[in-house]
Amino acid sequence: METKKARGLAIKELKRFVVDNYGEEGFKKLLEVLSPEAQNIINHPIMDAATYPIDILLEVNRKICEVFGNGDPEFARKMGNYGASMSLKGPFKIIFKLADIKWVIKRGPMIYSHYFPEMGRLEVIEINEETNTATIAIKDPPFKDIYYERAIAGWMEKVGRSFGEKNFKVEIIKSPTHGSRNIEFLVSW
Fold it and tell me: What's the structural domain count of the chain?
C-alpha cells in the first residue's frame, strides 16, 4: 500500500513554530522524542513543495502537543494559528488581501489541497449568510487524529480573524476520533 503524503510546507511550519516559540533548546527537546524517521526529516532542510509521509506530519504535530502543551489536543490550535499566520505572509498572501471571508471559505478546498493533497477532501457543505455560519468537512481522511483536527480548526480561526471577524469561531462537530467517517467544522462569524 502506498504511503499518503503531505506537503513539506506543513511540516516546515511545525518546525518553525517550535523554534520561534521555544528556541533551539525547545527544538532539541522535540527531536529527543521523535522517531528516527521523523528526526531525519525535520532535522534537514524541508522543501515546501516536496511531499512527506502523513505519519511524519501527524507524529510531529502530536509530539509538539505532548512536549509543549502537556498532551492537550487544544494546544494544536495554537500551531494551526501559527501556520495560518505564515500563510497570510506567504503563498496565499495575495488571495487573503483581495478577498472577504465568504470568498475564502468557498476557496477552502483549493487551499487545503495545496497543503494536504492526500489527506482527504475539504468540502464546503453550506454557507448560511443569514446566520453567518458555514459547515465545512474534510471527507474521507485516511487517519484518525485529534491533534490534526484541532490544528486545522486553529488554522481556520486565524484566517477568519485576519479579516476582522473578531467573533470568528470554529467548532468541530463531527470527528473520526468520535466515530464519524469525516471531520466536520461549524464555522461562525
Answer: 2
Contact assessment for residue 143 and residue 59, using Cβ atoms and an 8 Å cutoff: no
CB neighbour list of residue 65: distance below 8 Å, 6 or more residues apart: 71, 72, 73, 75, 76, 79, 147
Q: Grid coordinates standing for 132? A: 453567518
Domain range for 49 is: 5-75
* Shared domain check, 161 and 117: yes
Which among 47, 75, 103 is the end of a domain? 75
Predicted TM-score (pTM) of the model is: 0.92
- What is d(CA 45, CA 51) in angstroms, rounded to the nearest whole number? 13
Which residues, 6+ apart, have CB-to-CB distance to 109 below 8 Å? 121, 122, 123, 124
Decide if 82 is inside a domain. Answer: no
pLDDT digits 0-9 by tens, 138-179: 999 999 999 999 999 999 999 999 888 889 999 999 999 999
